Amino acid sequence: MTECMEIKNLSYRYPDGTLALDGLSLTIPLPSRTFILGSNGCGKSTLLRHLNGLIVPEAGSVTIAGRQLTKKTANSIRQNVGLLFDNPDTQIFSPSVAADVRFGPVNLRLKPEEISRRVEEALRTVELRELAEKSPYNLSLGQKKRCAIAGVLAMEPRILLLDEPFSGLDAAALRQFLHTLSSLYDTGVTQIVSTHDVDLAYEWAEYVVIMERGRVKACGGRELMRDADLMSEAGLDLPLLVRLFQGMGQIPDSLEQARQWIDPNIRRE
Asked: Tell me, what's the pLDDT at 1?
């Protein structure tokens, strides 16, 4: 049987009584590259915090590869399910990049040689080895996000949760960040991404989850994002490629495919 992350009847209210998740049920295949889409306040971030045990389910359940998340299992599950917050400053707190990445493995009480291996590997993956001794507070936003993800990777998670990871990045930093995510995905790390960026989701997602008011409105392949009524009801715009090619009989899956359709002689650089 294919492994999955299974969420059943998950509900959650904030301390002020606001309902964030309303009996949400969802199955996410593992491994996969899953994008969670929805307007502000639909519950995306709250869902991610449940998936790695920062919030332990009080109503409903979360089961990861056959293991249910409870107060007793939360700490061990977090070792396999890493979470990257929107603002990297909430995850960076050490005097150097290397020290920040080392923090997690040290707290696992690993042997010094294993800690060094994990730190080196994580920094290599995000291409920050040359900045290992630099203060993370002096990095650019893109570098800070890569530093934060290196700290998560040093825990060697099987699943990576990313909350609005693309916000605030310029074009160059975005390319670098996507390169890092692509390299990780090639190693089998599941990525579950919460984002407003429908264009990136359309090109990158294998599996799409559309949320509305604390519930799953729809889930499936990227073709969901071509449904104008569905996207509008969820408070989302259609992806640019869908808007450009609507009514033309066929819609490309990526910008590269669109270029080839427009001019087959274009060679990929």
From this structure: 44
